[in-house]
Amino acid sequence: DSTTMKATAHTNIALIKYWGKKNIELNLPTTSSLSLTLDKYYTTTSVSSAEIDSFVLNNQPADATRIHHFLNMLRKQLGDFSPLKVISENHVPTSAGLASSASAFAALTGVVVHELGMNLSNEELSRLARRGSGSASRSFFGNFAVWHKGIDDESSFAESLNASDMPIALVVAEVSHAEKKISSTEGMQRALTSPNYDDWLVKSANQLIDMQSAIQHADIDKVGSIAEDNALGMHALNLTASRQPFTYFTDQTQMILSLIQDMRHQGILAYATIDAGPNVKIITTKDEASTIVNILKNAMPTLAVEVAQSGPGISYD
Ligand code: DP6
């Protein structure tokens, strides 16, 4: 039928986190954030015309509610278009799950705008994708990206951060998790009730400046230590929420965090960052990644571990 081009967007991992909305409808964040796009995890999406908005994920019919809501927002912003069948594939190596709404909403935004014959910059696409999922705003760009929090819809967008090449790698450790996950949106709303939230905002702004400088100097040790500090601060907000405090950490998360401490005592460059789940991503160098994988596998034989590197921006074919 009328299926045509495909867009491929890679997921990104925030080194300075987005963890709070000051406007839920517009997805305006309380902080600017900074990310590294990854090579191994991506979503490829195409669209075709249909009777109603529908969604097929990895060849299975899937719930289209969130996508339908997002397409309606695009119809308001870009001009009306007919219903679409959205066909997506998530590419996630072996079992280390890092499928994300970031790559999904970036690829969807890219393919729809292209199909409409519009030519928008990646910055403009990032503003639109932000409405689907905040972290998607950063997935149009390869390597490092900054999402400027902005003050309104117009000024809240992401852009590429110019950076010299550095041998950064990310070891992704997926811990098995049985319990039901708290969505990012819900987790953020709870975190906002922490009495420490305002301190975190101030700290995050300073960490963003320090992180940009560490990236300019290709100082991976500093990149890692700022990222870990920022991530642990985010998770401390969850624990100190005055409405429904919670944690994404499991025993295995804690165990990996303490292994990372041991590695650092051994002189290995290893720092943790953690998102809305129990998985730990370890920031390190390309050279040290395999040592870290070995230490993790020895200590925790059932752990699924992958090594990712810097990935590209959105592409179309
Ligand atoms: C912890 O982008 O998934 O990964 O905007 O509600 O869809 P919504 O949230 P989402 O949140 C990502 C949170 C994070 C940190 C980050 O990626 O910056």
Mean pLDDT: 95
Order of helices and strands: EEEEEEHEHHEEEHHHHEEHEE
Q: Alpha-carbon distance between the termini?
A: 17 Å
**Sheet having the most strands:** 8 strands, mixed
Extract low-pLDDT stretches: none
What binds here, in terms of ligands, is:
ligand DP6
What is the percent of helical residues? 25-40%
Rg measurement, Å: 19 Å
Number of strands: 14
Q: Beta-sheet strand percentage?
A: 25-35%
The number of helical segments is 8
> Given the helix and strand composition, which structural class is it?
alpha+beta
Shape: globular
Domain Diphosphomevalonate decarboxylase-like N-terminal: 9-158
Protein name: diphosphomevalonate decarboxylase
Domain Mvd1 C-terminal: 171-302
Pfam families: MDD_C, MVD-like_N
Describe the structure.
One of its GO terms (biological process) is isopentenyl diphosphate biosynthetic process, mevalonate pathway. One of its GO terms (cellular component) is cytosol. It is an enzyme of class 4 (lyase). Keywords: ATP-binding, Lipid biosynthesis, Lipid metabolism, Lyase, Nucleotide-binding. Residues 171-302 form the Mvd1 C-terminal domain. A hairpin with a 6-residue loop joins β11 and β12. The chain starts with 6 loop residues before the first strand and ends with a strand. The strands form three sheets. Strands 1, 4, 5, 6, 7, 8, 9 and 14 form an eight-stranded mixed sheet that branches. The protein has a four-stranded antiparallel sheet with strand order 11-12-10-13. Strands 2-3 form a two-stranded antiparallel ribbon. Helices cover 36% and strands 25% of the residues. It has helices at residues 65-78, 101-115, 122-132, 184-191, 197-216, 220-239, 251-265, 289-299, and strands at residues 7-16, 21-23, 28-29, 33-49, 54-57, 60-62, 84-91, 144-148, 157-160, 168-174, 271-273, 280-285, 304-309, 315-316. With 317 residues, the chain is α+β, with helices and mostly antiparallel strands. α4 (184-191) packs across α6 and α5 (197-216) runs antiparallel to α6 (220-239). The structure holds ligand DP6.
